[in-house]
Amino acid sequence: MTSGLTDRPAGRGFGKLILFGEHAVVHGVPAIVAGLSLGASATVVHAAPTSLTLIDGSGRVVTTAFASTDGEPLERALQAMIFSLGVTQDVQVSVTLDVPIGVGMGSSAAMAAAVTRALVAEFDLGEQAIEAAVSASEAVFHGSASGIDQAAALTGGVFEFERGAPPKITPMKIPSVQLVVVEAGPPALTSDMVTGVANRLRRRKTSARQVLAAIREVVGEASSALQAGDWASVGELMDMNHGLLKALGVSTPELDRACEDAVAVGALGAKITGAGGGGCVIALTPNRGAEVCALLAARGWKSFTVEIS
Ligand code: PMV
């Protein structure tokens, strides 16, 4: 156990962007995800009452939650992690997030990975306790999730993910490339969007299953194109994946417009990233992210660049 303020263990978790295959991944199709250098860092001190304070990238306190089984999601998530890890002492956890909250960039999983790692280090709990605790936190925010956010938060880098127990994670080596993330409306609840897709699959057994099969093909082709740095193909496949997500019912007019505008100002392709229903789109902009952001701003969009590799 550590003491003092200078040697507190810090935990880190990565944010993420799903590049291909969201939603289909819930139903067994592989997906491709990029863990980001942006994410969350957590530190722990022994003090009562047990709490979690979220601080944004500029050092401002966003909120403080107190561990509780019947409170707000953040309170329940903190309780779930502490319970899963078997921590019985009072702890105050500070989490600094440099990934935006609630836009489909995996802030909740990054937070859980950072908090869990800091607690595991503080109480010498052993690495094997980490996954279950992150998963318990993610269950509070996302219900029954595929586990892709959690894998990205803990692993980082670009990899192919296939749901399972344990999930199959295949790291990919891709040339570094710039994406633009465009904010296109308030995000919907991931669990609502996942339920909507499950309902469509139940109603449209054959046709909606064909959409999943098409996404599987897109992901396979995208995997090769990404590793080859064939950006024209990656862009085309992003457009196709967006169309298929629209066919699953998770796009909105604003998300569609953001994709169209990004391509109109020079992106090679664009798609929803994450659950849809609002949130963000990603656009592929090798070497021209700043220019595309400026052109999108002129059309009224808030956007920023991210480098993945
Ligand atoms: O809400 P997000 O961006 O974390 O999206 C989660 C990805 C889904 O495929 C929609 C759900 C899941 O559990 O994989």
Write a brief structural summary.
The protein is of the alpha+beta class. Helices cover 41% and strands 24% of the residues.
Low-confidence segments, given as residue ranges, are 1-6
- Helical fraction equals 40-55%
* First and last CA, distance: 36 Å
Number of helices in the DSSP assignment: 9
Shape assignment: globular
Bound molecule types: (3R)-3-hydroxy-3-methyl-5-(phosphonooxy)pentanoic acid
How would you characterize the largest beta sheet?
Answer: 7 strands, mixed
Series of H and E elements:
EEEEHEHHHEEEHHHHEEHE
The computed structural class is alpha+beta
Rg, Å, rounded: 19 Å
The pLDDT mean sits at 94
What do these coordinates show?
- With 309 residues, the chain is of the alpha+beta class.
- 41% of the residues lie in helices and 24% in strands.
- The chain contains nine helices and eleven strands.
- Strands 1, 2, 3, 4, 5, 6 and 7 form a seven-stranded mixed sheet that branches. It has a four-stranded antiparallel sheet with strand order 9-10-8-11.
- Residues 1-6 have low confidence and may be disordered.
- Bound molecules: (3R)-3-hydroxy-3-methyl-5-(phosphonooxy)pentanoic acid.
- Residues 18, 22-23, 25-26, 104, 106, 142, 145-146, 148-149, 190, 194, 274-275 line the site of (3R)-3-hydroxy-3-methyl-5-(phosphonooxy)pentanoic acid.
